[in-house]
Amino acid sequence: MKTVKKCQNRSCRRQFLVSAYEAHPALTCVPGQVICPHCKSVSTASRTHIYLADPLRAEEYEIDFLEKKVA
Question: Considering the entire predicted model, what is its pTM?
């Protein structure tokens, strides 16, 4: 499952794409952590999944978000 998430860090607030996968005991990554690809801030989520985060391309950002960054 893929969703767009906004970073919870007040100094970042950038959007990124999050892919969720069911966690497996043999995995070496920590389940339940979403790491912002921009500022590396960590937020928590369901521990039954692992999350991979990727930055969005400029054309994927919401228009109002871009206007706030430019202003």
Answer: 0.73
